Amino acid sequence: MENQTQIFGTRAIIEAITAGETIDKVFLQKGLKNELFSELESLIRKNGVNKSYVPVEKLNKLTKGNHQGAVAQISPIAFHDMEELILQVTESGKTPLFLLLDQLSDVRNFGAIIRTAECTGVDGIIIQKKGAAPINGDTIKTSAGAVFNVPICKVDHIKDAVFYMQASGIKVIAATEKTNDTLYDVSFTEPCAIIMGSEGRGINPSTLKVVDAKAKLPLLGDIESLNVSVACGAFLYEVVRQRR
């Protein structure tokens, strides 16, 4: 299922970015050089839009129109401002719970996590502008529509979000196997944010250095790790258990 809105053509994408459309990702043709294309590249860099350079065959598969070497995907949701969301949640009187996803790349994992986040009362999900899974038809389907109910924010770097959370009195906890503490040894009763890493690399080592706590899931079998969406569900429901 891929029902994400696409626009194609260099000038059309320039106009969309200038008009403030929520561009999820732009696919650019490798090796293409002309004045208008360079203008688009400059605008993408200036606005921090996620981009990927691909062969022309990839663009031809994305659209049958005259793409001129550029195809953009428009997100079906509007992203929230992280600072405004944190202020809104902290002033609401409830105990904040945020979820940070460090370059999670699989759209189905992303959708499953959003669905669990909605069911467990997560106040917002923060993702990185570059390297994060897009919000497309598969994400919407896997989330069972929860993507429209949970505020999602984009930041330049996950570490920036960590520092801002900490400055706002929110404890940041990393879900990682690089610790002796399990999630049952950590308190989730105070305002907190949980970081889940990417499917292959996990959490960026530089981010792990600045978190307030680390916790892992006890694994009793021979397999050394769980699917990230399953692990995230276990963490979020431990938060629910402790806060009840």
What do these coordinates show?
The protein is an alpha/beta fold. It contains nine helices and ten strands. The chain has helices spanning 10-18, 35-47, 56-62, 82-91, 107-119, 137-142, 158-167, 205-208, 228-243, and strands at residues 5-8, 23-29, 51-54, 70-74, 97-101, 124-128, 152-155, 171-175, 192-196, 213-215. The strands form two sheets. Strands 7-6-5-9-8-10 form a six-stranded parallel beta sheet, with helices on both faces. It has a four-stranded mixed beta sheet with strand order 1-4-2-3. Helix 6 links the parallel strand 6 and strand 7. The protein is elongated, with a radius of gyration of 19 Å. The protein starts with a strand and ends with a helix. 39% of the residues are buried.
- Estimate the helix proportion, in percent: 25-40%
Number of H- or I-type helical stretches: 9
Portion in strands:
15-25%
Low-pLDDT ranges:
none
The averaged pLDDT comes out at 92
Largest sheet: 6 strands, parallel
The best one-word shape is elongated
Overall strand count: 10
**Structural class by secondary-structure content:** alpha/beta
H/E element sequence: EHEHEHEHEHEHEHEEHEH
Strand order in the sheet with the most strands: 7-6-5-9-8-10
Q: In angstroms, what separates the terminal alpha carbons?
A: 38 Å
Radius of gyration: 19 Å
